[in-house]
Amino acid sequence: MEQLLVDAMRAYLAAGVAMDLDRLGACYDDEFQNLRVDQAGQVVTITKAQFMQRFADMKAQGKALEPADDATFPTATIFGDYGIVVMRRVKEGGPVMYAFVWRLRDGRPTTILRELSFEDDLTYLIKLMQSAQLQSV
User: Fold this and answer.
1) If you average pLDDT over every residue of the chain, what do you get?
2) 3-state DSSP helix/strand/coil % of the chain, to nearest 5
3) Burial class (CB in 10 A: 0-12, 13-18, 19+), 56
């Protein structure tokens, strides 16, 4: 069963590389939140709408996400109607860890409910998000 989670992750990553907005939108649960935490304890929360807007902007600019060929999945577990997949990647020479919480239906992954990202420093992202909020006011 855990292999189903890994397969769902690979399909999700492929949708991102292809910038397939319909498939990406279908991967994210309506209650999706990406919770990013850095070494200093700073936290940023990104919603499905914010993620999808970012992807739409990237696609409009002709940009795409980098392939995730280096992604490994050290563990996956299922509990009740949820599954968690831990993904490891290497960015800028160092390991980056993510945890994805999937909603399951009939034992199969349907949508990503939460993504937890652990990063070195979120200062740049906090400033970017504050700037975007000021521009939308």
Assistant:
1) 89
2) 35, 40, 20
3) middle
